[in-house]
Amino acid sequence: MTIRRLAIIGVGLIGGSLARALRAADAVEEIVGCGRGRDNLQRAVELGVIDRYTHDVAEAVSGADMVFLAVPLGAMRETFAAMQGHLAADAVVTDGGSSKYSVIEDCRAVFGEVLPNLVAGHPIAGTENSGVEASFAELYQNRRIILTPTEATSPDALARVQAMWQACGAEVTLMSVEHHDEVLAATSHLPHMLAFGLVDTLARMKENDEIFRYAAGGFRDFTRIASSNPVMWRDVCVANRRALGKMMNHYLGEMQELAETIERGDGDALLEIFSRAKRARDRYIDGVLDSTE
Amino acid sequence: MTIRRLAIIGVGLIGGSLARALRAADAVEEIVGCGRGRDNLQRAVELGVIDRYTHDVAEAVSGADMVFLAVPLGAMRETFAAMQGHLAADAVVTDGGSSKYSVIEDCRAVFGEVLPNLVAGHPIAGTENSGVEASFAELYQNRRIILTPTEATSPDALARVQAMWQACGAEVTLMSVEHHDEVLAATSHLPHMLAFGLVDTLARMKENDEIFRYAAGGFRDFTRIASSNPVMWRDVCVANRRALGKMMNHYLGEMQELAETIERGDGDALLEIFSRAKRARDRYIDGVLDSTE
Fold first, then answer.
1. Do A194 and A226 fall into the same domain?
2. Does B159 touch chain A (CB under 8 A)?
3. Beta carbons of A216 and B125 less than 8 Å apart
4. Nearest-CA distance from A22 to chain B in Å?
5. Pick from A198, A225, A288: which is nearest to B212 by CB?
6. Is A151 helix (H, G, I), strand (E, B) or coil?
7. Residues A127 and A45 in one domain
8. Whether residues B190 and B279 fall in one domain
9. How many residue pairs from chains A and B have C-beta atoms closer than 8 A?
10. CB neighbour list of residue B43: distance below 8 Å, 6 or more residues apart
11. Is B9 in the same domain as B122?
12. Which of A154, A243, A244, B82 could pair with A181 as two cysteines, CB 3.0-4.6 Å apart?
């Protein structure tokens, strides 16, 4: 599999690492970067991540046979609009957003249909750093990539995106749009909400200075994700509001029961809950994550 | 300050580290360990953490001028009962439990009063490891110790406990019982409930195997505390149910609002919440914790 010309819209950690991985695998001939920040794009050229750049989406996608969208979810629709009429007939479009329903709806809103050559996707990979400087060729090695083809998706387009990710050393899984959005709401979006919500609740309490002063190391680990990019998370919440809202209400119902169990001091019920959670975490999470890292 | 004979009931990470720190500071003459597990106590002698041991609380505290209780909160009352009638007149009793109201109530229930020589306390320190093997002399270096004297507490007893912790390199803060329990509910107990509750909620969903499979590294960090000791946490919840129940209801109210904000897709309100949380975390938490570690 060789990509003739790859257009990357948004050359940061995710887009830059895809470029580096494909170059390392000798699976791409030319890479065109596109974005707003000139310094970042120039740095990307200096680092050899991209061959050239433009600030114009239409120009970036012209003549590309593969287009990768690594823009915030809130910028997807305008990005589709900017490329309309400029895509080559055989160009495949894919993305890295963490909500898939919204990306497909953005495509439909702009093009009036879900493009057969759109393969919505989501690499389950990342670090806490951002920008092209933070990108590296091994980011996707042995990591999971979820692709969410619809009925409209062309099998050839799907096969090309699948091959692209496999060239990066990733493991590709296919999933329905709805199921992807539910799984991500549970494992990523909800935990971020809990951490943002916890820090915000404490910050709004009187004497918050003092409260934070007595927070120990565990609290820092637990709330690290509350230092994530607020704009990105606003976009994720709005984009995935259906699945995330449902998941949050489910969780809050369970927590309401836990609060009542604590208030009535029911030690047996608490021990059962905590033991079940510990077993689940020890069995699934470490096992599963260790095998992929 | 020199302790003539220190009795440590519960020779694990917390009790063992106190012993090591006081020895390193040359602030104690003799240390008697007490606990149920013979292997652990024998290992404590071999490591030089304690001089000798007994399984009998009454014997351990006899002739001690300082008694440190490092037993689970659920075992405090029976431990007070076991030492009744065996404490020397000048013996000071202190502890390391993460809830202070319950310890004071346990003392009152056994002795019919809050002992003037009881100085309830709580070192804000620990690691994920347990047992005497995990203990080390530097655990309390530059860490905060909260002491919660009541009206009944003798100033001399308080001064002796304060001096003991200062000899370990710790920074001692005085706080009311109620305030301690609220602060710990907010910064430690509540986060543990959120993590236990999240893992348990996911574990009880159908297809939980698959959900955990797509959890990324951030999820592992966030839920690490759900692998904590379930028995210990049952005890903490029951002991601090008043403050923790109140704090959980406060948090759940805020999260209910957040869920509604997400469901109506109110991006401006979400951006405000996430930005405020990020600012609070970046400003307070890293700053405060960095200065103490």
1. yes
2. no
3. yes
4. 23
5. A288
6. coil
7. yes
8. yes
9. 295
10. B132, B133
11. yes
12. A243
Distance from CA of B144 to the nearest CA of A (A): 8
Residue B285: Cβ-neighbour burial (10 angstroms; 0-12, 13-18, 19+)? buried
pLDDT in tens, A142-168: 999 999 999 999 999 999 999 999 999
Q: Are residues B19 and B85 in the same domain?
A: yes
Tokens 């002991």 correspond to what residue? B239
Question: A195 is in which domain, residue-wise?
Answer: 179-292
The pLDDT tens digits for A48-97 are: 999 999 999 999 999 999 999 999 999 999 999 999 999 999 999 999 99
State chain A's mean pLDDT as an integer: 93
Same domain, B96 and B202: no
Answer whether B290 touches A (CB < 8 Å): no
Going by C-beta distance under 8 Å and a sequence separation of 6 or more, which residues neighbour residue A159?
A: none
Contact status of B174 with chain A (Cβ, < 8 Å): no
pLDDT digits (tens, 9 = 90+) for A4-54: 999 999 999 999 999 999 999 999 999 999 999 999 999 999 999 999 999
B196: domain CATH number? 1.10.3660.10
**CATH number for position B60:** 3.40.50.720
Last residue of a domain, one of A124, A147, A175: A175
Tell me which residue of A211, A227, A3, A214 sits closest to A130, measured CA to CA.
A227
Chain A residue with minimum CA distance to B276: A200
